[in-house]
Amino acid sequence: MARWLLHVDLDQFQAAVEFRRRPELRGLPVIVGGHGDPDEPRKVVTCASYPARAFGVRAGMPLRTARSKCPEGVFLPLDQEAYADASDEVMTLLRTFPGRVEVWGWDEAFLAVDTDDPERIAQDVRGAVAGLALGCSIGIGDNKLTAKLATGFAKPTGKSSAVPEAALGAASGIFRLTAADWTEVMAPRPTDALWGIGGRIAARLAALGIRTVGDLMAADPRRLAAEFGPNTGPYLRVLGHGKGDTDVTVDPRPPVGRSKSETFPRDLTDPSDIRAQVARLAADVATEVAAEGRIAGRVSVTVRTSSFATHSKQEKLPEPTIDVSRIVQIALRIIDRFELNRPVRLVGVRLEFVRR
DNA sequence: TCTGGGGTCCTCGCACCA
DNA sequence: TCTGTGGTGCGAGGACCC
What is the DSSP secondary structure assignment for residue A190, as one 8-state letter? Predict the structure, then answer.
């Protein structure tokens, strides 16, 4: 029997959770984000239902833009608690299948299974998830990278502009991608089709004449190392060849840190207002961290100005602490090191934990 | 498309020290 | 004592992901 990785990705997750409690919204262009008010400035779309996507609405788009593209859209506020509960339901269900489950965010998981018929298991998973009144797409691969990319071809919308021939019949919501068909499927695609390569790295690759996955496969590793560093350079080439992690970690890794940030509806200019917001966020995040019994070893403060320039300063604590007032005091000391001479649109406070 | 919030990991420059 | 060098820790920033 062979080892397979199944990447399970819930479809239009936040919208689907809303459909469960408001079935009358099914089939409508639903847009979830912010407080559900499309007039609210500086809030963005978290999830658009497939009908809303047909209007050009996308995650990350300002709500105001979404409304101009889709005036008849139904705008709903985020309900983190409901999504967390729904996610738990799905992950609990996945753990009833033979195999190992690694949770990957709210709406994704990897399932490692030993089988000669991974499609059969994928169909069973889809059926079980449908029993929760949710939908999912499943990518089957020989590692996490191929499984994850396969999901993109299994999505109902046909996420990619050029869906491979084999996926055209994938109304089943399942697609398999392995080393055997990697070159045929992926080589003609742009480098940012790969999981882990975004717009910035794709642009830097393009400057080296590397535009497609096929180009990346043939690239000189020394040249990549010179451009991207001794670790990232060779790693990019490995990605290009479709090699990926096969380890599935059942136990969640301990978090490295916790942060809170806020973009204000209007820029802040008064330093005392900025200090007050930093103190509030620091107190919030420190209270949460203390409640979980974690110990902060480092405090970091981020400031984003009206021009979107983002700067952060940090301080390692002489003694790790869970004391909220002490953390607030340090955060204020850090914000006082900034030159607050430009309007500020966002501040954030991050705590990094001491490993125990 | 005037660009959220919460994460993780990597790189680079600098200071310090042996 | 002065200078060079290499390791290490820290701070800042970049990039990616959902």
Answer: B
Say which residues have a Cβ less than 8 Å from residue A263's Cβ, sequence separation at least 6. Answer: A42, A304, A345, A346
Low pLDDT (below 50) residues in chain A: 158-161, 169-170
pTM: 0.92
- Nucleic strand C under 7 Å from the C-beta of A313: yes
Q: Which residue is nearest to nucleotide B10 (CA to C1')?
A: A232
| Assigned token pair, A146 | 């191929």
CA distance A346 to A340: 12
* Dihedral (CA of A70, A76, A81, A86) sign: negative
> Which pLDDT value is given to residue A159?
45
> Taking the CB of residue A207, how many other CB atoms lie within 10 A of it?
9
Looking at residue A331, what is its pLDDT? Answer: 93
> Which helix or strand (DSSP H or E) is residue A282 part of?
helix A271-291
DSSP code, position A136: E
Six token digits for residue A99 = 């195999």
What is the DSSP secondary structure assignment for residue A249, as one 8-state letter?
-
Residue A297 three-state SS: strand
Please tell me the distance from the alpha carbon of residue A347 to that of residue A320, in angstroms, as a whole number: 23
Cα–Cα distance, A31 to A44 (Å, whole number): 10
Residue A105 Cβ < 7 Å to strand C: yes
In the structure encoding, which two tokens stand for residue A185, read together?
A: 């499927």
